[in-house]
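Q: Could you fold this chain for me?
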Amino acid sequence: MSMKEEHKLILNLIQSYLEKNPSQRFGQALFNLGINEFQETIDPRNPNYNIRDIHGDSDLKIVERIKNRLDLFESQKNKK
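A: Sure. Below is the predicted structure, expressed as structure tokens.
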């Protein structure tokens, strides 16, 4: 059995990101790319720093989050 195409895409996106940001740790990259996320905070005075369970997220949803974050980083870079 071979790897799904979505898995290959996720790994390629992570690899490309880490090549451009070699000083970041792997865990930082997962958060920065939106793969892992914190649980939603209901009350801004009491932030929630628990990691959200992403077990039910589809691979395509994760790809979408990564691409959205990369687009955000690119737009921020272009504003400078």
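A (continued): The longest helix spans residues 59-79.
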